[in-house]
Structure formats: structure tokens, C-alpha cells
Design goal:
Layout (H helix, E strand, L loop, with lengths): L2 E2 L2 H22 L6 E7 L3 H17 L2 E7 L5 H12 L6 E4 L11 H6 L12 H9 L9 H12 L8 E5 L6 H10 L3 E5 L6 H5 L4 E4 L17 E4 L3 E4 L7 E4 L4 H4 L5 E2 L6 H22 L23 H7 L5 H7 L7 E3 L5 E3 L2 H5 L7 E7 L9 H15 L4 E5 L4 H5 L7 E2 L2 E4 L1 H5 L5 H25 L2 H8 L2 E2 L2 E2 L3 H9 L12 H8 L12 E3 L9 E3 L10 E3 L1 E3 L4 H8 L3 H10 L1 E4 L5 E3 H4 L2 H7 L7 E5 L4 E4 L14 H11 L4 E5 L4 H16 L5 E6 L1 H7 L20 H19 L5 E6 L6 H13 L4 E5 L1 H4 L5 H10 L16 H13 L3 E4 L1 H12 L30 E4 L1 E5 L4 E5 L19 E2 L6 E2 L3
Parallel strand pairs: 1-11, 2-3, 2-4, 5-6, 5-7, 7-8, 8-11, 14-28, 14-29, 15-27, 15-28, 20-23, 29-30, 30-31, 32-33
Antiparallel strand pairs: 9-10, 12-13, 13-26, 16-17, 17-26, 18-19, 21-22, 24-25, 26-27, 34-35, 36-37
Length: 934
């Protein structure tokens, strides 16, 4: 007599364990929720019964189940669109389409089920899951519910499947075919039979394990069954029975009463396989929800496939190296780092934008370790901060196999075609494709240009209209009657509130209130907002506008800045989300009124339109290094009058995606006295992020210059002092390195010095730099050669950074923002630059007094000075002393959120040199390859 396999009891046990697992997952992953979506087309009674069972069972164990009911008239396209919406819903981990569908028009069920993403196909019907199962790749597929339930029932009997002869009667894709695969990969010898199998009884009678799903009531008789066999009956059929109240009874495909006399174990119908199918549906859903939570941005190791480097000696040009490497398609990289498809918008095949919804999905995920790369005071040639940033990221990712993101700024096309030729790193430590990195990318800089110039146009248009119209005429045009009704728009209501006018009906304003509302009364001499373009053009440094015949007597002098100097770029880099960006763009002060009040873009009514233009630019751009590790390229604020760092959003996203044990390596513009100080005091102040380590890049070349070596000029061969060993120059020049180490230590952050080695450096020179750095406060100093060797050349640096970031963090800001503006400037000058003090010129004093009066005192300071010296004089090298820092002007970027003092002569529009880089840049018309961009 066979023992009955109680599927109902076993399913209950599975559901209880799933309930406990869901509770545990909620504790482990804050905000965890397993989501199941059931799509039903039509209103079949039997389907409603099955769906209600699934909804009830889901609620019992804590799964959030949604029933989407589509009408019978739904087309195949409409059904697939519903499925695609659920695919893109991150709260849904499992999707099933209840079969059969009841439709008025032809619908291919195969097409519909295959529109479900394989990772959400909890019915296990997608061809991808079926294909993986047939290959035995069971760890990477979802098992169909009924076969998985059957396997569980067999295993619960204690029967060892390995080596047994199994027969599967029925070959449907839902039960028979996957069941045979499951038994095969559990090491049974499997025969698949069907209604047309010759000698069907003979084949079945050889089975140690028999699974039946043929769809014919009580077809398999007792004399078909091998004595002692395990029988799993997947059939469910109704047959007439006058003794039953309903007039029928349910039976399986096996004659239960006969079979139980022969078999050792047998499932009843009902109460056998049926309850297990629902239980396995729920298990598949919880499994996928768990995997999604574990894969949420680095909870585990990424499945990152790195790209090999084909190193050559001598090292070829940057563009030759870049074009020799074949990058991964960016959607593949996105999947490797556990981004979801709906979080990534592709811009071609090699770059993409990443949505800010990732931050919401990963809110419970701990941040990775945060590293900023800076440098000593550089030569005009640069010392390789960008190259070190990328090389370190390649070393951490490809050599040490850590989750790592590099975050860098987007280069301006002005220097690209003018003096630089590119800014993607260099040698074997680059961002690729370098042509796309340096040219246009995804259009963020163009969006800033458009938004900035819209503000400029709005300023001059408002001045013009106020000068040519009465208060009443202005009011009628600013608040027009539309369809017989006059009302203020949202942005105008905000202006009324700021003016203290508590009225919402235009007809209620008094003449005095109308005047206050319509008159910005801009003092043209105080306009600080300039037009911009992303090209080096020295002849736009001063221009005259308003010379058209209709603008008589409206001319004024103004200028163009380069786009990356726009305050909108600084806003983009410092914003935390779309709402914050909208507020910052509205707070930007463009001028002062005749009464001395600030005039903002909100007053101009343009800030909402600016946010629309910047809607896509707020999302970071995803690219990759030469070795296939991920890079965020986002924002590119001028490192003189702005803070010179990539965006807060890129860093925040990256820190969540890499996970607790990962790394984010970001770069600060210019030397540590400029970019690093602004990184800490401005960027970290607004982001709330706590850095773990500083990487300070130094070169023997730059140290020799600081030690008194001859002038270094771009485009001119280096004097022999730089190509021959000279330990005296190196030691003297280390005064600059030591001061920059001290500057980093002011903030309580461990410093790792990266000695960026050149071919002309001697071992003695390199080791001297290491010794002096370690003796003067550096956590470590490492010689690296990532330019020539890629990640392998920065492996020791990566190991040192790994150790440094494990040190306790004692991070602190340099000053309290509530201190007076002058005092904050003086603290930076004395502590960071080594000055004896500051001297505010009369214009600067006047501006400081105005900003205090306008309520802008409590903002951080963003010093605008030369990057070629710790002082205000580029010719003063090393660590100069005994100087007073002259402050000629003090300006404000209120939207970005900082005050910027100007020291010396700082140009915001670079010029082209005698021989710009554009001479070398061209395109091969046959291959379309870019030439000369390096």
C-alpha cells in the first residue's frame, strides 16, 4: 500500500518558511518588499478561482500581490505593454500571465509570456529560462512552478533520484518538458512518453519515478506501475459522479485506487501537486526579491568582466591606445554593476545616463569608501591627477577585484580644441571612448549654454520693456487676460510672496503694489550674469550689446564666459535632486536693483524654464575605463571661480552602487590648495558625505620646479634639470608637497602620496620623495606607473588606499560658515596658502558689506586664484611665506551656494594659443575615426 504524499501539508510548510524568510529579509534590508503581479485577460471563472488562491497565499506570507485585470477586447500589443510596464516597476519581482487568456482578438500566448523579463518570469515559461534549464544552468534560471513542486514532493519522500529510471508521461512545455530536464540534471535516466508512444504501458512500467501530466482522466492503471515506484500525478480532470452534490468529482491522470496498491508513494488529486504549484510560485517570487535586494548596488561582488590591456613600449598616443581597445556595450556594464534596465537610458552603445531613482531603490544600502584625488601645485603641463584617478580605479577594480567607481568632470570643448586636446586621463589609464568623452558626450554642457543664455536674454529684455512701458502696460502684458480671465502664474505668485503682497487676484493689487511687482528696476552697472559659449574666444572677453535700431540708447558693455564658468554648471555639480536644483536655479542672483536688493532668476520668471532645459543634464553619464570598470562623468565647474569638482549626485549614486565594501574615487581640480579645499569645505558641506582618504599626486618634475628649477612652458622641451638626476632640487621642492600634506591633514583625513613616475625620474629621486612624504605626515607614499601599465602600475597605490580608508575618520571643516565673510577668507589664506593675512580692496569691501546686508554671509567661500602657486603670484613656487593676499573683488553665486573672492587677474574666457589643438584634430572620411585627439 502506497504512502500518500500530502502536497497540501508540504505546501503549508513551505509557505510558513517563506513567511519567516520575508520577515528576516525585511530586517536585513530596510524597505524590503516582495512584489507579485498577476495579469488576467478576460473574466474566466476558473481563472478567478486560481488567482484568488494566489492572492490569498501571497498575503499570508507577506508578498505584495497585484491583480491586473484586462478586458477581453485587449489586443496583443496592449497586453505586452502592460507586461513591459510591470517589467520596469522595481517593486515587482514576479510577473505571471494567467493562462488561458480570454480575448476577442488573436493573441499569441508565447509572445506574451516571452515579453516578461526572464528575471521576473516566476512561472518559468520564458524561453530564456527554458533554455537555461535544458542546458542544466539551474542556478541562473527560474524553475517552472509545477515541475519544481513535483521535484520537491519526490525529495520529501526521501527517494534518491540519482541513478533511478524516471518516466515523464506528457511533453507539454509547462510540465512534461521541464520536468524531464529537472530529473535529468538530478541524475535520473529519463524517458519522455506521450499518447503516441509505442508500447506506452511497457515504457511506464519500467519507471522507478513516474510523473504523469497527459491530460486524460485515470489513464494510468495499477498494472502499468512498477511495484514500489514513486508516482506524481499532475493531472486534474472532472468526471461525472451522481453521488456528488456538484454532479462531478476530480480525478488525476492516474487511477489512484489501483495505483496506490502497487506504488510506494503517490500524490492524491486533489491535494497533491496543486497546492505545490502555488507554493512554488510564491517561492520563486521571494527568491527573485531576495536576489534583487542582495544585488542592490553592491551588496555583493559585481559580476564585472574586465578588459585586458595590450601594453606597448614606447607608449603610443592616447587616442591610439583608446581606439585600440574595444569597450563593452554600456548596457552590459550597467547589468554587471547591478543597475536595472529602467534606470539606464542609452545614448548610443557606449554611454548612458543613469536615473536618480537608483538612490531611492538603494536608500537602505550602506555607502562605499570615498576617496578624493588631488595634487601638489602643478606645472603648466599638469601632473596627472585625472590619469591617477582612472589608474587607481582600474587598479582597485581590475587588479584587487573591488567594486569601484571613478567620478570625473566632463571636459569643456574650449580647451579640447584649444590647449589640451582631451581630458580623459592618459596612456593606459583613460576613459573610453575618448572621442565621445571629449566631444559633446550627452549634451550636458550644451544644455547649460542654452539655459545660461536664456537668463542673459531675459535680463536685457526685461530692462528694455521696463524702459519703454508704463506700469499698467507692463502689468497687462506680464499678467495677460486669457479666455476672459486674468490670473498670476505659479512663479509670479512666488514673487508676490517675496514682496510681502498677500494677494492672488490681479484685480486686487493697488497701483503701488503693481509697480513693486512689475519693476525689477535693475541697476545695469551691477549685472553679474554673462553670456557663455563652450569655445575659447578671447575677443568675447568684452563686447557691446544693444546696437540694433530698435534698441537705441540701450547699449551696454558685457562679456562672454566659457560655459563651464556658468553658475548653472556649479548648481548642477552641487545639487542633490531635481527639487533642489529647481530651488537653486531660482535663487541665482543676476544683478542688484536701484534700491540695493538682489534680483534673482525667480524674479525674472525664468527659473522653471531653466529646470526644464536641465532636466536630462541632472542625470550622471555612465562610461568605462580602458579596463572596463565604471566611470561617472558629470558636471565640469570651472576650478577657479567655482569649486572644480564633479557632481555630488554622481558621487552619491556611485557610493550606493559600489556598496559598503566598494570604493568611489573622485577628482578635485587643480592643486590641493584649491580643488581639495573646495571639495571639503563646499562639496562635502552640501553633500553630507564623509571622505575616507586623500590621494595627493606629485611628480619629480613639479617638485624640481618648486625647488628652483627653470620655468616649465607647454610646448617647449624641458630643460636638462628636469631630465637628469638632481636630488637637491627635489628636496627643496618638497616644501610644496609637505605643505599640501599639511593642508589635507587640517581636515583630519589620511593622505596617500602617489608619486607619478616618469621615464626620466631616477630611483633615488623617487625614493627621496617617498621618504620626505612619510616623514611629514603622509599615511603612505607609493611610486606608481599607471600611465604606462594601466591598473597594474597602480596596484601598490590601490593597496595603500585600501589600508588608509580603514583608518578612523576625523573629518572636520576648516571654518564655521557663520563666521564673517572676511574672517573665513582669512582662515583659508593663512592656513591653506601660508599667507600672513589678507587685504580687501575698496570694491571688495563694498561687495562684502552688500552681501552681508542681503543676508548672504553664511555661505562657504570659494577662492578664485592662480593654480600655479600657493600664493597669488604664479612665479612664487614652493611654499612661499611673508605675503599678504590681495582680494580685489568678492562675488556671489547664491544659487550654487558660495561667495567667491577674486585674487589677482582671473579670466573666465580662455583664449586660443598661436597653434591650437584643432590643427591636429580631423576625421577619416572612410572609417569615421577621429584623428589627433590626445
Amino acid at each position: 500500500m502506497a504512502q500518500k504524499i500530502d502536497g497540501k501539508a508540504i505546501a503549508g510548510d513551505i509557505r510558513q518558511k517563506l513567511k519567516e524568510e520575508v520577515t528576516s529579509l525585511k530586517e536585513k534590508f530596510p524597505g524590503f518588499s516582495a512584489g507579485l503581479a498577476i495579469v488576467q485577460v478576460g473574466d474566466r471563472t476558473d481563472s478567478n478561482v486560481y488567482i484568488n488562491q494566489k492572492l490569498k497565499a501571497s498575503a499570508e506570507i507577506g508578498i505584495t500581490a497585484e491583480h491586473i485585470k484586462l478586458p477581453k477586447c485587449s489586443t496583443q500589443t496592449e497586453i505586452v505593454q502592460t507586461v513591459q510596464r510591470l517589467n520596469n516597476d522595481i517593486s515587482v519581482h514576479g510577473i505571471i500571465v494567467q493562462l488561458p487568456m480570454e480575448t476577442d482578438s488573436p493573441v499569441d500566448a508565447h509572445v506574451v509570456t516571452n515579453s516578461i523579463w526572464p528575471e521576473k518570469d516566476v512561472d518559468g515559461l520564458h524561453q530564456s529560462n527554458a533554455g537555461r534549464l535544458s542546458r542544466g544552468d539551474m542556478d541562473n534560471c527560474i524553475l517552472p512552478c509545477t515541475p519544481r513542486g513535483c521535484l520537491e514532493l519526490i525529495q520529501r519522500t526521501g527517494t534518491e533520484i540519482k541513478g533511478k529510471r524516471a518516466v515523464v508521461l506528457g511533453r507539454s512545455k509547462i510540465v512534461g518538458a521541464p520536468m524531464s530536464d529537472l530529473l535529468t540534471w538530478n541524475h535520473a535516466t529519463v524517458t519522455v512518453c506521450h499518447s503516441r508512444t509505442a508500447d506506452l504501458k511497457g515504457e511506464v512500467s519500467q519507471a522507478d519515478i513516474l510523473v504523469v501530466g497527459i491530460g486524460q482522466p485515470e489513464m494510468v492503471k495499477g498494472d502499468w506501475i512498477k511495484p514500489g515506484a514513486v508516482v506524481i500525478d499532475c493531472g486534474i480532470n472532472s468526471i461525472p459522479d451522481s453521488t456528488k452534490k456538484a454532479g462531478y468529482r476530480l480525478v488525476g491522470d492516474v487511477d489512484f485506487n489501483e495505483a496506490k496498491e502497487v506504488a510506494s508513494w503517490i500524490t492524491p488529486v486533489p491535494g497533491g501537486v496543486g497546492p505545490m504549484t502555488v507554493a512554488m510560485l510564491l517561492k520563486n517570487t521571494v527568491d527573485q526579491a531576495r536576489k534583487a535586494a542582495e544585488a542592490a548596488g553592491g551588496a555583493g561582488q559585481w559580476s564585472l568582466e574586465t578588459l585586458p590591456l595590450n601594453l606597448k613600449t614606447p607608449v603610443p598616443s592616447d587616442i591610439v591606445i583608446a581606439q585600440a581597445q574595444v569597450p563593452k556595450d554600456i548596457d552590459i556594464l550597467a547589468r554587471e554593476i547591478h543597475l536595472l534596465p529602467d534606470e539606464v537610458d542609452l545614448y548610443g552603445k557606449k554611454k548612458a545616463k543613469v536615473g536618480l531613482q537608483v538612490l531611492k531603490r538603494l536608500a537602505g544600502q550602506k555607502d562605499g569608501r570615498y576617496v578624493v584625488v588631488t595634487g601638489i601645485t602643478p606645472t603648466p603641463l599638469g601632473e596627472g591627477k585625472s590619469t591617477t584617478t582612472i589608474g587607481l580605479a582600474q587598479a582597485l577594480g581590475a587588479e584587487l577585484r573591488k567594486n569601484v567607481f571613478a567620478c570625473v568632470r566632463q571636459p569643456s570643448q574650449g580647451p579640447t580644441f584649444g590647449i589640451k586636446g582631451g581630458a580623459a586621463g592618459g596612456g593606459y589609464s583613460q576613459v573610453i571612448p575618448m572621442e565621445e568623452f571629449n566631444l559633446h558626450l550627452t549634451g550636458d554642457i550644451h544644455a547649460i549654454t542654452a539655459a545660461n543664455n536664456l537668463v542673459a536674454a531675459a535680463i536685457d529684455a526685461r530692462i528694455f520693456h521696463e524702459a519703454t512701458q508704463s506700469d499698467e502696460a507692463l502689468f497687462k502684458r506680464l499678467v495677460p487676460t486669457t479666455k476672459g480671465k486674468r490670473e498670476f502664474c505659479k512663479i509670479q505668485l512666488g514673487r508676490l510672496k517675496r514682496l510681502g503682497i498677500d494677494k492672488t487676484n490681479p484685480a486686487d493689487l493697488t497701483p503701488e503694489e503693481v509697480k513693486k511687482f512689475v519693476r525689477l528696476d535693475i541697476d545695469k552697472a551691477t549685472i553679474t550674469w554673462q553670456r557663455v559659449m563652450d569655445t575659447n574666444d578671447r575677443f568675447l572677453r568684452k563686447i557691446t550689446i544693444g546696437q540694433g535700431p530698435q534698441e537705441k540708447n540701450m547699449t551696454r558693455e558685457t562679456q562672454f564666459d566659457i560655459t563651464v564658468a556658468s553658475e548653472i554648471m556649479a548648481v548642477l555639480a552641487l545639487t542633490s535632486d531635481l527639487r533642489d536644483m529647481r530651488e537653486r536655479l531660482g535663487k541665482m542672483v543676476v544683478a542688484t536693483s536701484q534700491a540695493g536688493d538682489p534680483v534673482t532668476t525667480d524674479d525674472l520668471g525664468v527659473s522653471g524654464a531653466l529646470t526644464v532645459l536641465m532636466r536630462d543634464a541632472i542625470r550622471p553619464n555612465l562610461m568605462q575605463t580602458l579596463q572596463g570598470t565604471p566611470v561617472f562623468v558629470h558636471a565640469g565647474p570651472f576650478a577657479n571661480i567655482a569649486h572644480g569638482n564633479s557632481s555630488i549626485l554622481a558621487d552619491k549614486l556611485a557610493l550606493k552602487i559600489v556598496g559598503e565594501n566598494g570604493f568611489v574615487v573622485t577628482e578635485a581640480g587643480f592643486g590641493a590648495d584649491i580643488g581639495m579645499e573646495k571639495f571639503f569645505d563646499i562639496k562635502c558641506r552640501y553633500s553630507g558625505l564623509v571622505p575616507h582618504a586623500v590621494v595627493l599626486v606629485a611628480t619629480v618634475r613639479a617638485l624640481k620646479m618648486h625647488g628652483g628649477g627653470p620655468t616649465v612652458t607647454a610646448g617647449v622641451p624641458l630643460p636638462k634639470q628636469y631630465t637628469q638626476e638632481n636630488l637637491e632640487l627635489v628636496e627643496k621642492g618638497c616644501s610644496n608637497l609637505i605643505k599640501q600634506i599639511e593642508n589635507a591633514n587640517f581636515f583630519g583625513i589620511p593622505v596617500v602620496v602617489a608619486v607619478n613616475g616618469f621615464a626620466t625620474d631616477t630611483q633615488a629621486e623617487l625614493e627621496l620623495v617617498q621618504k620626505l612624504a612619510r616623514d611629514n605626515g603622509a599615511f603612505d607614499a607609493v611610486i606608481c606607473n599607471h600611465w604606462a601599465q594601466g591598473g597594474a602600475g597602480a596596484r601598490d597605490l590601490a593597496a595603500a588606499v585600501d589600508k588608509a580608508t580603514q583608518q578612523p575618520s576625523n573629518f572636520q571643516f576648516l571654518y564655521d560658515v557663520k563666521l564673517p565673510i572676511e574672517e573665513k577668507i582669512e582662515i583659508i589664506a593663512k592656513k591653506i596658502y601660508g599667507a600672513d593675512g589678507i587685504e580687501l580692496e575698496p570694491l571688495a569691501q563694498e561687495q562684502v558689506a552688500r552681501y552681508k546686508r542681503q543676508g548672504f554671509n553664511d555661505l562657504p567661500i570659494c577662492m578664485a586664484k592662480t593654480h600655479l602657486s600657493l600664493s597669488h603670484k604664479p612665479e612664487l613656487k614652493g611654499a612661499p611665506k611673508g605675503f599678504v593676499l590681495p582680494i580685489r573683488e568678492v562675488r556671489a553665486s547664491i544659487g550654487a551656494g558660495f561667495i567667491y573672492p577674486l585674487i589677482g587677474t582671473m579670466s573666465t574666457m580662455p583664449g586660443l594659443p598661436t597653434r591650437p589643438c584643432f590643427y591636429d584634430i580631423d576625421i577619416d572620411p572612410d572609417t569615421e575615426e577621429i584623428i589627433g585627439l590626445s
